[in-house]
Amino acid sequence: MTLTPNLRGALWMLASALGFTAMTTLIKYLGPGYPAALQTFYRQLAGVVVLLPLIARDWRAAFRTTRPGILIFRSSAGVLALIMGFYAYQKLPLADANALSFTRTLWLVPLAGLVLREPIGPLRIGAAVVGFVGVLIMLRPGAGGASHWLGWPQACALASAFLFALTITGMKVMTRDHSPFVLLVYAAVLGVVFAIPPALFVWKWPSLRDLALLSAMGVIGTFTQGAYIKGMEAGEAAVMAPIDYTRLVFAVAAGLLLFHEVPRAAVIVGAAIVIASTLFISWREHQLARRAAIAPQPA
Questions:
Q1: Does 197 score more than 80 pLDDT?
Q2: What global pTM score does this model have?
């Protein structure tokens, strides 16, 4: 049986969503004993170990670059995003943290205009505004929740999504003259370097069992990233984007079964609004790309 490109891509995206859920479950499970900065270090270190055999084939090509400054900035922003994101997953229910992470696509709208100088029409701006309304609904305290709307875990989740959007914007700039593998290598290697200082402030030698779990978390994280890239490469972006949101379903199931977390109605409603708006933005970008591809080229 021959799989169509979209079906093959969908399977990779589902694998990515399952891997992401497994990784965030380990983040939350290990949270009481290992702070976010320390988990980030082990996650980055495991990623480098996984990539070492590929780097060894041609290390000069793996590190060849003409824009070290952007790579350094992108890696530092990525490490900070991981630390904040890990902290949010440790402190928030898995469903809440996952739902807030979806704002990454919303942040890409203003960044595309400011950094990439892309034209942003009223439809994309309107969809982003509607999406942030969904965020406000998600941040609404529950009946027995805190009296404030935005606590540190929620703020870190949103800041992490913004920083990840910033790294994606930087990736779009760098892919004009860099291969994805080079970007992945620099993100992993520089990520270890930038993760060391904050990890030292909370350093703790893990037991063999915890070391195995931390290593598994890092390996799963690397696999998740690779599966996502493979899915986007195999299938159409507009078809693959909705499948990525299945990780919210997996997060709700994992939170309920493993941590006894019952998602609030406000989170479900707000997440639905955010997902709908980000799907519209993805669909709109896909339509504009298709029009540009079939437009007649000047002689």
A1: yes
A2: 0.86
